[in-house]
Write a structure and sequence with these properties.
The chain is an alpha/beta fold. The protein has helices at about 5-15, 15-25, 25-35, 35-50, 55-65, 70-80, 85, and strands at about 95-100, 105, 110, 115-120, 120-125, 130, 135, 145-150, 155, 160, 165, 170, 175-180, 185-190, 195-200. Helix 4 (about 35-50) packs across helix 5 and helix 4 (about 35-50) runs antiparallel to helix 6 (about 70-80). The chain starts with 5 loop residues before the first helix and ends with a strand.
C-alpha cells in the first residue's frame, strides 16, 4: 500500500474536512474521549511528521484514519476492547496482532507489519517494527514473554521469545532470532542474535 503525505493531501483533508468528520465521527469521538489521548497524540506525531503532515490535531487524525491503516491498528488497541464494536464499522489492517494485555508505550511505529504478532509483557516508548515480526512466549505460559525497552527498532523477519529483556536504544537486524536478554545501547543481528556494535 502507498501512504500519501505532503501538502496536497493536507489540502484535500482541509477541503473535505466536514465530510470526513461526519464519515469518521465515531473514531473522532473515541479519540477525543480516550483515556489514552495523550499517548495517541504521540503516536500520531511520530507518523505525521515523517509524511509532512502538519496543522491541527484533527487534520493529523483524519490523515491517519484515511491514509494509514497501520496506525489504525494502534488506534484500535489504544481505545480498548469496550469500544471494539466500532472497529467493525471501518477499514482496518488484519495482518498484525496486539495481545490485549501488552503494556504498550507511546510513539509506536509499524511499517507494513504484515504477519506481525506482538505478545510481550511490555513494549516501551518509540518502538519501531516491520513485517513478519514475532514477539511472544517461549511455551504455553504467558509468563515467559519478553520485556522490550524504550527506543527499540526491529527489522523485518525478527523473532523474539522467552522471558528475556531487550534494553533501551537497541537495534535488532532483519532476520534475527533473539532468545537471550540484550543490554542497552547496542546493535544485534543473526540467528542466534549477537551483539555486533555498541552505540555511543
Amino acid at each position: 500500500m502507498v501512504i500519501f503525505g505532503g501538502k496536497l493531501v493536507k489540502y484535500y483533508i482541509k477541503i473535505f474536512m466536514p465530510i470526513l468528520i461526519i464519515r469518521y465521527l465515531p473514531l473522532v469521538v473515541c479519540f477525543y474521549f480516550s483515556k489514552n489521548r495523550i499517548i495517541l497524540e504521540e503516536d500520531l506525531k511520530n507518523f505525521t511528521q515523517e509524511y509532512g503532515i502538519t496543522g491541527s490535531i484533527i487534520i493529523q487524525l483524519l490523515w491517519a484514519i484515511t491514509q494509514n491503516p497501520y496506525w489504525i491498528t494502534i488506534f484500535y488497541y489504544r481505545i480498548g476492547n469496550k469500544r471494539a464494536f466500532i472497529c467493525n464499522l471501518f477499514k482496518k489492517d488484519k495482518s498484525s496482532l496486539f495481545f490485549s494485555d501488552v503494556e504498550l508505550g507511546k510513539g509506536i511505529k509499524l511499517y507494513h507489519p504484515f504477519a506481525t504478532i506482538l505478545n510481550a509483557v511490555k513494549i516501551g516508548d518509540n518502538f519501531v517494527c516491520r513485517n513478519n515480526t514475532t514477539i511472544g512466549n517461549k511455551d504455553s505460559s504467558q509468563n515467559n514473554r519478553p520485556v522490550i525497552g524504550n527506543n527499540v527498532e526491529i527489522g523485518a523477519n525478527v523473532v523474539i521469545f522467552g522471558n528475556i529483556c531487550i534494553g533501551d536504544n537497541v537495534i535488532i537486524g532483519a532476520g534475527s532470532v533473539v532468545n537471550k536478554s540484550i543490554p542497552n545501547n547496542c546493535i544485534v543481528v543473526g540467528n542466534p542474535a549477537k551483539i555486533i556494535k555498541y552505540k555511543s
